[in-house]
Amino acid sequence: MEQLFASLKSIASYVPSQCVSNKDFEKTLDTSDEWISKRTGIQTRYFATPEQNTSDLAYEAGKLAIERANLTPNDIDVVIVATLSPDYLTMPSTACITAHKLGIHNKPAFDISSACSGFIYLLDIAKSFIQSRTYKNILIIGAEKVSSVLDFQDRGTCVLFGDGSGAAVVSATTEKSKSILDVHVAANGQYADLLYTPRLGATSNSPKQCLQMKGNEVFKQAVKTLAQDVKDILEHNAIKPQDVNFFVPHQANLRIINAVGEMLDFSPEQIVLTVQKYGNTSAASIPMAIDEIYTQGKLKNGDLLLLDAFGGGFTWGSALVYFNG
């Protein structure tokens, strides 16, 4: 029997229309455009309207990803959504709602919770499903309405994040040169209290149900972990940094991205940056960044992408992916 590989057949994204600049935060917080830009690299981000749910954002990106893969909703075998800001607290899953909106019926649909590493985890799951011949065409979506879990009185967190979605279709191929070459994912719950969203009323002294982060500690762990993770996956596959067409890191903080890029000797031309435009969109960050270079005409068929992400949990992961769109 011929061996099957998983292939990234399409990429798409969606950004809500409400643009929020750093200066907008000056009106409500003790902060400034200079303070935010210097520490994060973020200049603007986009927030969904109160009427928009995470599934609405996921729908827009998912619909375009299916179209760009030259497929129909009937061709999709399973829908998987990564999000830290689901439509509902526990059920139904955002994937179920998104699949319904897309017209994908009587097919499996489920969410995963891996925070900012969500899209890397999605690639790993999709790759396993394809190679085991469980499914042929998989729709994966990172979608976030992070604004729904932010404390807009906390200047240390609310200026960092934005809303958006990114989607991809992963399909079966017999050509390894067009495949998701390798994916590494990992986690360590020891650091759970550094980045988390408490459940309302879980304990008598629970903080409000908004994202909580100890920024300096997260920064240190992220730089160290991401750099080592990228070194490991490159060495494991005998690939040199200069062989990578685009390094697409999670878009959390420009200082983290620059630190990792310098440690690994990537050129500015290799590093994809969107954090200045969209802020940290968590699980949507990496697919949105890939779509940015795709729509700009920079990403070509056969290009090798190196993806890397770190998020609450802590979770982290990296992937080497040949684009086959």
3D shape:
globular
Strand content: 15-25%
The number of distinct structural domains comes to 2
Spell out the helices and strands N to C: EEHHEHEHEHEEEEEHEHHHEE
For this structure, the CATH topology of the largest domain is Peroxisomal Thiolase, Chain A, domain 1
> Strands across the major sheet, in which order?
1-7-6-4-5
- The CATH architecture classification of the largest domain is 3-Layer(aba) Sandwich
Our Rg estimate from Cα atoms comes to 19 Å
Task: Give the class from helix and strand content and strand pairing.
Answer: alpha/beta
> Major beta sheet, specifics?
5 strands, mixed
- CATH top-level class of the largest domain: Alpha Beta
Please provide the count of β strands.
Answer: 13
Residue share in helices?
Answer: 25-40%
* Cα-to-Cα separation, first versus last residue: 26 Å
Q: Overall pLDDT, averaged?
A: 93
CATH superfamily of the largest domain: Thiolase/Chalcone synthase
Helix count?
Answer: 9
Low-pLDDT runs of 5+ residues are none
Question: What does this protein look like?
Answer:
The chain has 325 residues and is α/β, with parallel strands linked by helices. Strand 4 (78-82), helix 4 and strand 5 form a beta-alpha-beta unit. The chain is built from 9 helices and 13 strands. The two termini are 26 Å apart. The protein has 2 domains: 5-176, Thiolase/Chalcone synthase (Peroxisomal Thiolase, Chain A, domain 1, 3-Layer(aba) Sandwich), CATH 3.40.47; 180-323, Thiolase/Chalcone synthase (Peroxisomal Thiolase, Chain A, domain 1, 3-Layer(aba) Sandwich). The strands form 4 sheets. Strands 1-7-6-4-5 form a 5-stranded mixed beta sheet, sandwiched between helices. The chain has a 4-stranded mixed beta sheet with strand order 8-13-12-11, sandwiched between helices. It has helices spanning 22-26, 33-40, 54-68, 94-102, 118-131, 215-236, 254-263, 275-278, 285-295; strands at 5-14, 18-21, 44-47, 78-82, 109-112, 137-144, 164-173, 180-187, 195-196, 212-213, 246-249, 304-311, 315-322.
